[in-house]
Amino acid sequence: MAEVRFENITATYGKKTILKDFSLTVNSNEILCLVGPSGCGKTTLVRCLLGLMKPESGKITVGDRVLFDAKKRINIPAEKRNIGIVFQDYAVWPHMTVLENVSYPLKKRRVPKGEIKERAMKALELVHMTTYANHLPMQLSGGQQQRVAIARALVVDSDILVMDEPITNLDAKLREEMLLEIRLIQSRLKSTVLYITHDQQSALQLCDKMAIMEPNGSLCQYGTDEDIILHPANKFTFEFIGVSNMIPVTCKGEKICLDCGVDYKLDVELPKGTTFAEKSVMGVRMNDVVFDEKSDVKAQVVSKVFLGSEYNYFIKLGHKVIRVQQSMLDAKLSGVPEDGATVGIRFVNPRFYDAKEEHSEAV
Amino acid sequence: MKLFKQNNNLAALDGGRRFSLDKALTITTFVLLIIIVLIPIFMIIFNTFFVKATTGRWSLDLSMFKTQLTDTKNLSAMWNTVKIAFFTTIVGTIAGVFYAWLLGRSDIPAKGLMRALFNIPYMFPPFLGAMAWDMLLNGRGGYFNKFLMNLLHLESAPLNINSIWGIVFVEVSYYFPFVFMQVVAALEKMDPTLEECARIAGAKQSTVIWRITLPLTKPAISAGALLILTTSLAHFGVPSIIGYSQGIYTLPTRIYAVIYNAGGSFEGIRQGAALSVLLVAVVSAALILQNKILSSGSYDIIKGKSTRPTLIKLRGAKYPLLVFCVITLLVIVVVPLVMIVLVSFLKAYGLPLKLENFSLIQYTRVFKGGGTIDSIKNSLFASITAGVVCMLLGTLVAYVVQKIKPKNKGALEFMSMLPYAIPGTVLSIGVILAWQGSILNINLYNTIWIIIVAYLARYLSFSMKTSSAALLQVSSSLEEAARACGASHTESLSDITLPLIRPAMVSGFFLIFLPAMREVTTSILLYGPKTRTLGVQIYGLRDAGMIPQAAALATVAIGIIIILNTLVNYIVKDRKGV
User: Fold this and answer.
1) Mean of the pLDDT values across residues B372-389?
2) Is residue A48 domain-shared with residue A138, that is, in the same domain?
3) Taking the complete model, does pTM exceed 0.80, yes or no?
4) Which of B13, B484, B489 shows the shortest C-beta gap to A75?
5) For domain B19-48+359-578, which CATH number applies: 1.20.810.10, 1.20.58.100, 2.60.120.580, 1.10.3720.10?
């Protein structure tokens, strides 16, 4: 398996530019989850990699092999790129049996007949589908069809395995199972995987590295999952990953003040050497809002939901309703406030962003 | 004409693979459609308004069009055409919806059998029906008229089929299945919860039918009605057989008469072309009007899972309605069929229908007489060739429009659907004008190929529609997955796409083959001495007064059609079962 590099890819669809100077590297033997909202250009990137779409400029390499280079006028046709793909809608051919589906890539590579069956069955074994070898796809459930699609992508030694939203069409429980299985298969085969999704939850579960794309098609952060959760590069990443509260704030002298109908001063120093914009927002994750009787900042509980392992609250701070998550441990220790009760709250680990600019860097 | 969006620097990058195949397919489609569809239509318009002077230059000449337009014969023909089409559409649509609802939604007995029987008029050639009714109800001695006159001691025939209303009656009998079949299908696919919700909300059964069921099936009704309208406007067989003796002309029969009288001279064909422009104008006006009245919005709710709708209980009306259905079937299917078969056994036309007057002599005569065997061969050859070529070409157009999506795909779609709205008679004239030597000296006149070319233009939209619908079901990711698995573009087409749409292609073939086998409207203007089709041969025999022989050949034709239809059902079913 090999490393995949996108260098300065620009891709347009009609007059609309989808990707502009996009660069990204998928490390060898790792799972990279590319996460972004719907319509941000994830699938366009996959199509460029597969050779189903031609970028306007840039370069794509897999290992030492150049698949596309606009300057050198190289564009390897799709069928010669040696990339395994699993599509969102499975794309299992309905007129072929499971075995025929999985054998197809081998047939196209002129593998000897005896070997085809053996290798196809081995691939089916990986996804626990050997008993269904002679079934037609329409006799299978969605999850089973997806397994067939994965087996078909694994059956040849592709340089890289691309999965474009492979589990979106499955139900929640099956999704969980498939994620574990993909992880297992990957670690067994040491594959390089580019996993595309808009669902950050499954990305967190699966990835070695994560890359976040903004709606405009640019890459806004690349790193490990911890990195991205703990040190979001900008407001977009912060808001996109996890549930977050955005509370308007202003700067009064050296102190930062809430600006939502109540003007509590916050116990936060202005970061040194930065200018504070006129209109700013404070971003704080729902589990970073802590009930604290001693705090000056008071809010009212509007409603709460018990979710088994935690409580979720809607609380009213001035005219702004914010969300709070309280773990069971906290609930045990500090009690569960009633609806309508006034509580003191404290913000842990707040971040400040310019309210006007959507994609500004953190101050 | 810039067909493709592309980055010119990179045009050569593909090593000539995917792009060039797509490009080749697109260009082929354009060229073929222009040759088959656009040129004949252009030729009609051009020849109507332009004339070649002796100096060899073409000049604008409106006199031909003016003379045709002011000729009272033509005007009355136009009026007849409109009247017949109007009433046929109205009555046919009402009948189609009524029977569709009865067989699709009520608890009337013997539904399966009746549905099969109600589809018979669709495959029955209307002009054979017209022949049968002319035998029965001819104002001067139809068999049924004679029977009534004897029974009731009447001086003159009580019924006369040879009138505008006779034509309407016969056309309705054979065209109402257009609406019937569409609406039955829509009713079956309709989500029954839509009706159930209305009932739960407090609506009466009749309110549900009026306010929910009918509006939801409106697109199907509208599509079927449109088909009746355009077919009736362009139809030649029925008005010709029933109206000719009384001097009742419609535009298509008028066009035939004009060309026939002129003995195939260019002047006659030009007159025909001018009348064709008139006919096209009438059809276009009708289409626009129809569009205004029944704007066909499509409701997605009709699609989807098919669950058995709840059937409406007819209670006391059950058996009277059943009897009514049976009588309808008797009148429109059994009576004409029996009549044709009986007459085919008569020693001479006009003899009473008694066993002593029956023999097989007409069959030996018709097959011994010149041209019959040839006409069957011609029809088989032309229909099979047209069916195969249309199937391939229709799939090609559908593929280009649905999958390659070039910039001008709207133009492609328009061109392939154009003949759908253009009467067969008109297309024939265009084909004559185009392929009798005026373009590149290609002269197909008097050969079977000119008939095939006309069939292609006329039926292409049928196969394109079926292939198009099938291709829409084939998600593009299926082909893309094949590419990623190592299949070239051509291989992905042959391994994945074609096998998936093959059933649709097969049914597309029969959708063309069957009507082409029995049609008379197109070939009546195009046949030459050696290229009579089955329809033309029957028409000719009847026209020459050899009615029992015509009936004998008609019986044979009906036999062939029934055998082929059974074969089709067998083949299509077999494919679905896999």
Assistant:
1) 90
2) yes
3) no
4) B13
5) 1.10.3720.10
